[in-house]
Design a protein that fits this description.
Layout: E1 2-6, E2 15-18, E3 28-33, E4 36-42, E5 61-62, H1 70-83, H2 87-94, H3 125-134, E6 142-148, H4 154-167, E7 171-175, H5 183-193, E8 198-200, H6 206-217, E9 223-226, E10 238-244, E11 252-253, E12 259-260, H7 261-272, E13 275-280, H8 285-292, E14 297-301, E15 312-317, H9 331-342, E16 346-350, E17 359-362, E18 379-381, E19 386-388, E20 395-396, E21 410-413, H10 417-427, E22 433-436, H11 438-441, H12 446-454, E23 460-463, E24 476-481, H13 484-487, H14 495-509, E25 518-523, H15 529-534, H16 539-552, E26 560-568, H17 571-586, E27 592-604, E28 607-616, H18 620-629, E29 640-645
Helix pairs in contact: 1-2, 1-7, 3-4
Bound molecules: zinc ion (ZN) (2 copies).
One zinc ion binds near residues 371, 391, 392 and 394.
Length: about 650
């Protein structure tokens, strides 16, 4: 019997093998490939019209693991077509280091089993109403959005929904942005469910991944809380997917196999014919559009915990502030912060920039410190005592011979959180402060710092965007956005949307225990309309406006964008080739090609980068026409094309 076997490699088609085993679609097998033996899956169709003439080899062995369901095969086929990724690479996402894991002895899965001790979830009337509308047509595929301000108790609602599904014997998946996978969240889960969820992200050990993978395939594990990649686990009986913080842009996988985990979660739910719940304080533009069109149902939680209201906001005009040189905190802010501190409020200075200073320059020769691999300035990190490229990781010491004479004499322009922290210490010398960024919070000590923050042992925090994600700080009642103008810059059509999300995330951090809270924005911009737009208590007003701008300009979600990024080491050859490529594909595709243009970060990791943008109708025709023509163009060796469907990042 001839069988089509898909292998976890760069090929977009299954290979034909011979077998006298009794094989069916979805069975995992071991086959010879070249000189090695690899794991593959019996696929749902043979390679189309091949004229290759290989000797057909024999399947070596069937692996005793529950076979891959047809629905998942269909999902992977679609995933591959939509994202323009070879089918083999899609399969690779589902396997564990290109392998499958056989079942361990039962006791290995013991801790994931439901125990008797289950705390009852007490829901408010509003939460009950949301749960009710969430559970409408819960038997099949549908998308429901639960929208509620931070602190309104959304988690309890979807936990309860999940509990009901599990009690019917199904499995559940909670997708979180990587950064949201905190111990706090896990603790809450265990308290309410009485058993441990399986936690899945890139940092999980190989052994634990094996246990989880096999436990999921055999329905021994009921719930996975995971980052993007957990979407590809081989659930035997998946009954519900929950995407928490659905607006979070880190659901987009930007390197390697590029895809948007939120969108793919919706698609997997549709192939599995199961419900999916999207959870958010403020929906993304795409989700909002689908709510408006009636494609997604919606429920809202308006009441915050203990009736806490959202924080007030104040705009501090820096044009009148006469800041001293190399200082960024105005007198007015210092006075206001002192009032908050007297009331025992915790204070956060927010600046989305790691390190001490983003720009280091010699006062004698005027040459700045830039990355030798990327066209970007190195960021000075004072604590680590080095200069760092945030894109490629290049590191160097702050020490350079000057072309004038002797050593360079450095000046630092602009602040990062370390520099703001120094200024804070100068102005509030008796207070305990801490920096909250990926440089300080990635280590083991972070749990200790978190405890100190929660117990109000630290009075002033200086933090990057990291702080806006899912942490609960009960005493935080004052947030100073050091420079709102900074966060509105970027190579991005989503700049405005990002600011809206950021504001709602930040203000969700403040005032969670009912005390009045305030967010202060320092700005040089006299047009404060953007601030009043994003701070409006009703985000729909902003989203409606933004959606209209997108419609008028034919931007997503009204059109499909596909970014084509070509990289190479020779600047001139790259440019020439990019134009040739454009001419080659232009007439054969369903859509219009814009560019090529140099990418905003023109050089990255030693490679030059040129971007093309295809825009077309929202249909698979765009991808299909590209997939047909692209392989016919042969790039010179050393040049590489990356395809990014629905790009978010335009760097
Ligand atoms: Zn670099
Ligand atoms: Zn110099």
């Amino acid at each position: 019997m001839k069988v089509p076997i898909l292998l976890p490699n760069i090929f977009n088609h299954p290979f034909t093998y011979d077998s006298d085993l009794n094989l069916k679609i979805g069975d995992y097998v071991i086959v010879p490939f070249g000189k090695s033996k690899i794991t593959g899956v019996v696929w749902d169709e043979f390679e189309k019209k091949t004229n290759k003439n290989f000797a057909i080899k024999k399947v070596l062995k069937k692996i005793e693991v529950p076979s891959l369901k047809k629905k998942i095969i269909k999902f992977l086929n679609w995933f591959s077509e939509y994202n323009m990724i070879p089918k083999g690479m899609a399969l690779k996402l589902l396997l564990l280091s290109s392998n499958v894991i056989e079942k361990f002895p039962n006791e290995i899965y013991e801790k994931f089993k439901i125990e008797i001790k289950i705390n009852k979830i007490e829901l408010s009337k509003e939460q009950k109403n949301c749960l009710k509308s969430m559970n409408v047509s819960n038997q099949k595929f549908r998308v429901h959005v639960l929208q509620g301000t931070t602190g309104s108790g959304k988690t309890m609602v979807y936990f309860e929904a999940l509990k009901q599904i599990i009690n019917k014997g199904f499995q559940g998946l909670i997708l979180l942005p990587e950064i949201g996978l905190t111990g706090q969240f896990q603790k809450k889960f265990i308290e309410l469910f009485g058993f441990e969820p399986a936690i899945w992200h890139s940092g999980v050990t190989k052994k634990n991944k094996e246990i989880i993978w096999s436990g999921i395939a055999n329905n021994e594990i009921k719930v996975v809380i995971g980052a993007r990649s957990s979407l590809f686990l081989p659930f035997k009986k998946l009954g519900l997917i929950i995407v928490d913080e659905e607006h979070d842009q880190s659901f987009k996988q930007d390197e390697g196999v590029i895809y948007n985990a939120r969108d793919m979660a919706i698609s997997r739910a549709s192939f599995e014919n199961i419900p999916v719940n999207l959870i958010t304080a403020v929906p993304s533009i795409e989700t909002y559009d689908n709510i408006k069109k009636g494609k997604y149902s919606l429920s809202k939680l308006d009441q915050r915990y203990k009736n806490a209201s959202l924080p007030n906001y104040e705009i501090i005009n820096l044009n009148n502030a006469k800041l001293k040189t190399q200082s960024w905190i105005s007198k007015e802010i210092i006075e206001k912060v002192n009032l908050h501190l007297e009331r025992k409020d915790q204070v956060l200075f927010f600046l989305n920039r790691r390190g001490f200073s983003p720009h280091v320059l010699c006062k004698k020769c005027f040459s700045s410190y830039s990355c030798p691999n990327c066209s970007i300035n190195l960021v000075y990190h004072k604590y680590k005592q080095n200069l760092l490229c945030h894109y490629c990781g290049y590191k160097t010491l702050l020490d350079r011979n000057c072309i004038k004479e002797g050593k360079c004499d450095f000046a630092f322009s602009g602040p990062g959180v370390e520099r703001i922290s120094e200024e804070v210490k100068k102005n509030f010398p008796t207070k305990k402060t801490a920096i909250f960024s990926s440089d300080t919070m990635n280590k083991k000590s972070s749990l200790e710092i978190l405890d100190k923050i929660i117990n109000n042992e630290i009075q002033i925090l200086v933090g990057t965007q990291l702080i806006s994600k899912g942490f609960h700080f009960p005493n935080l009642n004052c947030i100073v956005v050091v420079d709102i103008d900074l966060s509105s810059q970027g190579h991005d059509l989503r700049g405005a949307e990002k600011n809206l999300q950021l504001y709602h995330q930040l203000s969700g951090r403040a005032g969670r225990t009912g005390k009045p809270a305030t967010v202060y924005f320092q700005t040089y911009n006299l047009n404060t309309k953007m601030i009043s737009d994003i701070t409006n208590k009703d985000p729909d007003i902003f989203l409606d406006k933004e959606l209209e701008i997108r419609r008028q300009n034919n931007l997503p979600p009204f059109q499909r964008f596909v970014a084509l990024i070509i990289t190479g080491s020779n600047e001139r050859d790259l440019e020439k080739e990019a134009f040739k490529f454009k001419n080659f594909i232009e007439k054969s595709i369903e859509g219009k090609v814009l560019g090529p243009v140099n990418a905003p970060i023109f050089r990255l990791k030693k490679k030059f980068r040129v971007r093309l943008l295809v825009r077309g109708q929202k249909s698979l025709k765009v991808q299909n026409s590209l997939a047909k023509i692209i392989p016919k163009f042969k790039f010179p060796s050393g040049m590489k094309l990356t395809v990014d469907v629905d790009p978010i990042n335009f760097n």
